[in-house]
Amino acid sequence: MCRFLLYKSNSPILLADLLTRPAHSIIMQSFNDKLRLDNRQPVNGDGFGIGWFDEPGTQGCIFTSTLPAWSNLNLQRLAEKVKSALVFAHVRATTGGTATAESNCHPWQYGNLMWMHNGNIGGFRRIKRRLLSALNEEIFLSIQGTTDSEHAFALFLSMLENPKGRADFSYQELHQAMLRTIAQLNEWLDEAGVTDEDGDHELSLLNFAVTDGQSVVCTRYITSSELPAASLFYSSGSEFRPETDSGSYRMAKANKREDVVVVASEPLTYEKSDWLAIPTNVLLVITPKLNVHLYPIRDKYWNPHRFHTTS
Amino acid sequence: MCRFLLYKSNSPILLADLLTRPAHSIIMQSFNDKLRLDNRQPVNGDGFGIGWFDEPGTQGCIFTSTLPAWSNLNLQRLAEKVKSALVFAHVRATTGGTATAESNCHPWQYGNLMWMHNGNIGGFRRIKRRLLSALNEEIFLSIQGTTDSEHAFALFLSMLENPKGRADFSYQELHQAMLRTIAQLNEWLDEAGVTDEDGDHELSLLNFAVTDGQSVVCTRYITSSELPAASLFYSSGSEFRPETDSGSYRMAKANKREDVVVVASEPLTYEKSDWLAIPTNVLLVITPKLNVHLYPIRDKYWNPHRFHTTS
Amino acid sequence: MCRFLLYKSNSPILLADLLTRPAHSIIMQSFNDKLRLDNRQPVNGDGFGIGWFDEPGTQGCIFTSTLPAWSNLNLQRLAEKVKSALVFAHVRATTGGTATAESNCHPWQYGNLMWMHNGNIGGFRRIKRRLLSALNEEIFLSIQGTTDSEHAFALFLSMLENPKGRADFSYQELHQAMLRTIAQLNEWLDEAGVTDEDGDHELSLLNFAVTDGQSVVCTRYITSSELPAASLFYSSGSEFRPETDSGSYRMAKANKREDVVVVASEPLTYEKSDWLAIPTNVLLVITPKLNVHLYPIRDKYWNPHRFHTTS
Amino acid sequence: MCRFLLYKSNSPILLADLLTRPAHSIIMQSFNDKLRLDNRQPVNGDGFGIGWFDEPGTQGCIFTSTLPAWSNLNLQRLAEKVKSALVFAHVRATTGGTATAESNCHPWQYGNLMWMHNGNIGGFRRIKRRLLSALNEEIFLSIQGTTDSEHAFALFLSMLENPKGRADFSYQELHQAMLRTIAQLNEWLDEAGVTDEDGDHELSLLNFAVTDGQSVVCTRYITSSELPAASLFYSSGSEFRPETDSGSYRMAKANKREDVVVVASEPLTYEKSDWLAIPTNVLLVITPKLNVHLYPIRDKYWNPHRFHTTS
């Protein structure tokens, strides 16, 4: 299980204010992520990646490393210089024997699209061949690593028209492609007998996030109608800023303006009221103008009761 | 283009005497490999790997690194301690955009089998999907990296019965599987239009080496009936040992005994008479008792004239 | 704060049985080390090192990495092959801004001597220059990194006669040099005002371990007469071996023979009775014949009450 | 021997246009640096570093890696995004047993000052202790690695008043501190008997470069009155830009404006007339307004004849 964070705002933030300076940053989450569902691998020390965009309509930049985020000098120095209004960040714990390699670090990009995943596709090995055969040649050959997450991205890309050549996408289009990706994975997992409601059931945790540099679509999803998905929270306000010198940050809420939206596996501030849990099996859209929409994913795992009662 | 070395003997050699102490070792070849065919990437600084067996019938051990071999302290320290009678070593230069990652470092192993490759499969991208679909599920899922070389190993494995469960193989069996691997690659390359004798022709350089810990089979091969393959030499004698303190090594030849066989992309000693060039498109077998056999690979690229005249 | 382990026995153990297979191995301690005194940096993910000897009277071999131990393929493969009767192992968490670099990974060696440290020298920066000026030229120039631990080793070396040229040392000699090292550090820390009994007091945690390949001397020590030092346990018996297939290990105690001694920052087995806490401010000697002696370190921090009541 | 490059201009350049896209970039120089004086270590594959400033009066940013520059994905991606009007870049070949570690990668920074070095201090080990003892405590403790180059930077810093606290320096001040650094090194090397005109003479190659983000001072220097120093060239013009799509770059010279100055160990373009060799034992200043001044370093190694005849 890994951790991710995404940030979108009207004006650029210094990456340090998001990634390295907050006492409860995603970097610190590398050490201590209490909300994880899976306790077998408690440390996100198997690499990390950050992606950011400088201007809409251009490809983002990615920096990845197989060294733990918390001791990476390059990350610390870059974070003090780079500003961006759209940031993805991910820390990784290897699962399922997947190698620690830069090619297995999130996020990935393809054209202007950027993708990351927190969770895992249960029984991925049993649908990997099926998934590969569904990809067109260009997307098939673009895969550099061995993770289920990168393969899910490849599947997502194959749901879009001309994913490499275009500068931007409507958020509706990304929304639909995301739903189709999850539906297709479920169909194959069912066929492969991975998800068998009556008997054993290997769970998939599908917290995906994708952006074209303008809109963001992400999900909190699990292949179960009873269990909660891996945690995912969001917060919005006028500015994400330090409260004190000690690394304590707050989401300021001046004049009810919504200039910043943050989605993260775990709250980044100690102020609980800043954060809303995204309900399980829900898709979240951040529009280019920073409106946030939540949509239930109404498939066979949809459970209105869970939606209303759990986090 | 990379470089490899394999060593088999009746009694163990200290790895340092093979890998780090010789003035003209494969480590130094990382810097300066004058016999390479391809000059676009003149430095084998993109990682290396060594594999060795301690006793027949057990799995070998592999040490790989994405750091250049020449400055790797762990390699230098291990080489001063580890002894083995069967050693594979490989230094790597990335080609074709393949990532520098440990999962892309040679050699690979599967059960007791160990594999490395010097060269590349021309037009590999055009047959990759075909190759994957020919693999059984277990071998398909064992692939960890993205290189053509590892995929060729997977194809080789699929030519064997029960490649994982067996302790050893006859050298005839490895020999046949190697020929079938090359034949199968050629068939697919032809079908994909990669190798078109009349028009453009993307060459494959297939210097493969495989061992089960007892026999060794390797090839010097090119998909051309005119051009020479990537260089490959062998030497045999009673002992590979230092001549002086200055790093100069010799293949000693006491009593005409054949206790050591070395195959390498480039001679390891300055004494030219120690080394024989393996002819192009020839397969070499080292039997468990250290007999060496050369077999022409008589397919459409076989050229008796080249066999008799070139190195 | 880091973690270490040392193992000495009459017959070699496969490193995997010590380092990677035990459910509660030092590798797993990288994730979850509950007994640590210092909670600021809860993860030992900043590199590791192992050192081992194959035969008495020769230099040991060291393998270090800045990648976390738990995902290091080379470590896992080597551990399945290497056997040794004298092993040092260390996992590291960076402290005090020290860089993650191979040159800062424990253990270090000098001639036949090998050294590691769990803890830190409080206020090291204030005595660093003093320490360097006390070293002879050869030892001064041998320092490759920036850690307090390596500098403490250099100081220890300067307490011995001809530390590089000799094959072995008596354990009495190592014992005395260790005491003099701690005494010298204390003297300088006092002079620099770091250790001020009346006012602020920056603590040093000096769990040191040293071996010449035959004897082992280690300490559990703190510059305080009240507080406990960083934890350190030992266990002895006839064999350290797996109890079940699930990774559970035990210290077997057949015939009251003492063929194995293990000292570790944290117990390696779940059987509490296997392990004795080494009292605070005590030096432990393992003789070449595997006798274990404990000696109180009777300086100004010695506290008989703590010795008798605490772990 | 290593290689360096520095770039200063009136308007920012995309790092890719300086570092990764030119056919003869410093990255390619990692492979093939024909002008090197020392042939023992022909490959600059032991790490690299780049430093750049975004605005005058702020600290620069540094990105270093121990992996070879030519296969570093992060470098390639960053170079496509980052723009700067003042860039330092360095590729490294380890010498004298210095470890490959990030802390040993150039450039280094201290406050707003940035430093790199091509060459080596001959006999550095014999003056290291002397040098350390001349540093004040803060500079002494700031040293993170073991290279002669970083120690020379520390010495340079100790020639300045308040090197950490100030935003900028006059170029005259940097100029004087550089001369005093070289003079001090020479004095110590003489005292230590390293430089003995009559007998053996261990050479120092001191191509240093320093900047405060506004001015640049660099040297081409050798401790010999006869031999040439390590090569150093400069070029100036109106723009450094691609001529063709094939990676060929030129220094454009529109209207005789001097908007760009580049200093590099080897010419970056194939047009020889673009480049002037900086004479041996000369100091070059680039003022904030891009004026370039050359000053002979008139010490005992000054040789007017060499100045007028050699490159």
TrEMBL record, chains A, B, C, D:
GO molecular function, one term: omega peptidase activity
GO terms (BP aspect): glutathione catabolic process
GO cellular component: cytoplasm; glutathione hydrolase complex
InterPro entries the record matches: EgtC-like, Gamma-glu_amide_hydrolase, GATase_2_dom, Ntn_hydrolases_N
Domain Glutamine amidotransferase type-2 positions: 2-311
PANTHER family: GLUTAMINE AMIDOTRANSFERASE DUG3-RELATED
Protein's recorded name: Glutamine amidotransferase subunit
